[in-house]
Design brief:
By secondary structure, the protein is of the alpha/beta class. Helix content is 37%, strand content 25%. The chain has a 6-stranded mixed sheet, with helices on both faces. Strands 2-1-4-5 form a 4-stranded antiparallel sheet.
Length: 241
């Protein structure tokens, strides 16, 4: 579902991503982690067609992000870290507006909205304005918007940031449910979140892939050295130079 081959991206003379390659299959939930400035956000922006790669080939759902950007967007759902929502809109109206923007046929919009609302468990708040919702419900609405058009690939940037423990568990469960039939790439700074959701981790450091392996492989490696299993430990362990 996602294929990245020798991808690089530079901001002027600064190379943010340096010749990385990886692929994700249908049904995989993969965590993209790394310290600040590692290239995570740049990689996600290129995958979602917000930026054009400087080098390499990137395909999402079989479509090239440069040559077939519109087809990529049709097969991709994206929730950015800031989760942009119109606070003064009623939830149902906001989803209807997104469905129209996504060019979902009028005859199918109600079913698409109902399906997303049910999956994201936001049916009880469909009549409320977004500014009255808790952060947990706001994240659910953001995810509902991202899956309205039934995309094959879902990309989530720091989806649980700022949530309380109960809300984090609820969003994790939702991501696991969605990931049964879709490819999910999620970025996070929380190792517990990675452990609860992902079976595989891709660690970026200084624009390169320092690790691409099953999560348990990483945890086993740091456990043998008696190190505390957290994201910072993973960074230190796999980015020694």
């Amino acid at each position: 579902m996602i294929e990245v081959e020798h991808f690089s991206y530079a901001y002027g003379s600064t190379r943010a991503v340096d010749d990385i390659s990886f692929s994700l299959k249908t049904g995989e939930i993969v965590a993209l982690i790394g310290p600040n400035g590692a290239g995570k956000s740049t990689t996600m922006k290129v995958l979602t067609t917000l930026l054009r790669p400087c080098a390499g080939i990137i395909r999402v759902a079989g479509y090239d992000v440069t040559q077939d950007a519109q087809l990529v967007r049709q097969n991709l759902g994206y929730l950015p870290e800031d989760n942009p929502l119109y606070d003064d809109m009623i939830v149902a109206d906001a989803l209807a507006s997104i469905a129209q923007q996504r060019r979902i046929p009028a005859a199918q919009r109600r079913d698409s909205i109902d399906e997303a609302a049910t999956l994201c468990a936001i049916t009880p708040v469909m009549h409320r304005t977004i500014d009255t919702l808790s952060r947990g419900y706001r994240q659910r609405v953001g995810i509902a918007q991202a899956i309205l058009h039934r995309p094959n690939v879902l990309i989530l940037d720091e989806a649980t940031t700022g949530l309380d423990p109960n809300q984090i568990v609820e969003i994790r469960d939702l991501i696991l449910q969605i990931g049964k039939q879709r490819t999910v790439l999620i970025s996070t700074h929380i190792l517990q979140e990675v452990s609860a959701i992902a079976k595989r981790v891709i660690l970026l450091n200084r624009g390169k892939i320092a690790l691409d392996a099953p999560l348990q492989t990483a945890l086993d490696a740091i456990e043998t050295q008696g190190l505390a299993p957290n994201i910072e430990t993973l960074f230190r362990h796999y980015t020694k130079s």
